[in-house]
Amino acid sequence: METLTDDIVKQEIHNWITNYLDVPSSHYNGHQPCPFALPAWNGDRVDVKVGGWASVLWAIEEFDDTKDLVIIAVPEGSYDGFEPFCEAKNKKLAEEGIDLVCIPFIPDDSPEEDPDLDSEAWGSITDHVYGMVFIQRLSTLNKVSRMLEREGYYENVSGKFWQYITARRELESRNGRKKEVNG
After folding, report:
1. pLDDT tens for residues 85-118?
2. Across the chain, how many H-helices and E-strands are there?
3. Cα(73)–Cα(50) distance, rounded to whole angstroms?
4. Counting beta carbons within 10 angstroms of the beta carbon of residue 98, is it exposed (0 to 12), middle (13 to 18) or buried (19 or more)?
């Protein structure tokens, strides 16, 4: 099996964006699953790297708004503990007034919330299993989330997903100073 590289992950994310995230879905009330992904990708506002714990910490420390989103792809076997790690890091960032959030995506065997999400259909190109940590501005993410909520975007999501959205918004309310990283 080939090694998981930045280029492989970038191609797979490109396929995921163009063939799933940018396609209107009944699950998201006629919206694309992520209506902002393709413009950010095409505008070179997304950075993708294969890495681990240190890469996530480095990306947080070096976040400078030249990108809207940094994605760290974490190879299978290396992402154990990333969900509690991100939860603790998010609380720490909020306490320190840093306007960033780490969102873990850890693959598992649970059924997908959106029935249209099928890796074969959107163009998976590798047999590698990997998790991802998305790092972006918390305030921007929550602003967009509130806009989408007004448009009915979240009407079909699970209670668990809605709890996640609520918790993410509460992080921002605890983040009074909103200081920038590196500034």
Report:
1. 999 999 999 999 999 999 998 887 554 566 666 6
2. 7, 4
3. 5
4. buried
